[in-house]
């Protein structure tokens, strides 16, 4: 199995790769090597804190040794460079240990979210031909071991299930580590480090192949912009597998800088505020709905939040009025971040004035992030006008993993990624996100592909047709609404029955439609396609 990005996915043409190396963006680092160097430079500094249920800490030396021993154990069990391993862990220290062990041998973590269920996990296991699946025993009332057993039955390639906690019929992760036999034959910096998940617009998630070189640059650039250094104490509030808390600047950025990462088991103020106080947290990242909850809860809290210096907010639309309230309520700086797991990340800057921070979504990390804003014909719009955002650069992928047809649609011939976002650019280079052209719902930062949910509802025998659309929501930004046309001969269904049907199919709970409405017909576009835009505007609150 090869790790070379050009084989399973398009990669940067040689002249771009040379340019990015010459400019010092790609420096030939790998994640395995990075942790090794940090452990040598400052072995006794605290790298990681997992505060629950009992506080556990890892120094850089301990994390490095743990990664070595786990890597040796994975190798002893036959996991090899290039193999894919689906990692579905909540915010626990083992998540960080496992991914560094995989980085070290060059096996590729496939980052599943804790909320994913049978539909998503089955896709990740079969599509990536994963050889192993790492799960908690149970989380949020769901037994992951039972799902893992089902995945093993269905996927002959899936040979190992490693469980954090009580393993049941599987292998306890704690049984895996062993003494390394020698140095690891790890990946090269230009090779793939992991597969990240796309938000998706068409059915199942596409997988995003990121290399050590390119992702490391996005960390370094993010650290510089956010002021991350060895003194940073970063609270991981969102699920650690999301690209935002992982890399913008995220727990990987903070480890790169030699700071301390603290994992919050839950994102609510009742959990997070005591952690901010006790762990003297200086920085965190939130999605807009959480930023609202924190902003509302902060003024009345008994906890001392004064260590907080910077809160990043991104992942979905953040209203200007909510943004204005954050700094006074939390007593720290706000930074907006508009990013995507495919690459491009924009930040407002620490020296931007308040107006810029609350009204824009920032500007790109890199001077070599190429931005085009185009009309429907791919022609550049006049400066300052709205259009489709296309981008190309030193940490933006040139194609999804094993998806040539999708790639032909999602990338231009000269390698620009079609983000699907509608933006305009201000004179200083900051972008304002105006909306979205792609068929996707952004439910408080969780991205939903309507087609995936539609396909599930269509499987109901009483359903003739369905269209799932976004509707505005004051708290989440958007919620999902399923318009359902029933068969004329079918017994009437209730909205609750539709939602239960979707849930029972085994899908992440955030994808279950928030609302279900029964209609006789959909609005049509000129070409006879369902007009999503029309359905969306029909659902605007009047
Ligand atoms: O995917 C995202 O929404 C996102 C948001 C902020 C920062 C990122 O890196 C992201 O990937």
Key descriptive features of the protein:
binds 2,3-dihydroxy-benzoic acid; single chain; 2,3-dihydroxybenzoate-AMP ligase; ATP-binding; 27 strands; globular; nine-stranded mixed β-sheet; AMP-dep_synth/lig_dom; AMP-bd_C; 542 residues
Question: In a nutshell, what does this entry contain?
Answer:
The protein is α/β, with parallel strands linked by helices and 542 residues long. It is built from 18 helices and 27 strands. The protein is 32% helix and 25% strand.
Please state the CA-atom Rg, rounded to the nearest Å: 23 Å
Strand order of the largest sheet: 2-1-13-12-14-15-16-17-18
Bound molecules: 2,3-dihydroxy-benzoic acid
Q: Kindly, what is the distance between the CA atoms of the first and last residues, rounded to a whole number of angstroms?
A: 56 Å
Low-confidence stretches: none
Count the strands?
27
Helicity level: 25-40%
User: What global shape is seen?
Assistant: globular
- Strand composition percent: 15-25%
Number of separate helices = 18
Summarize the biggest pleated sheet: 9 strands, mixed
Question: Which structural class best describes the helix and strand composition?
Answer: alpha/beta
| Mean of all residue-level pLDDT scores | 95
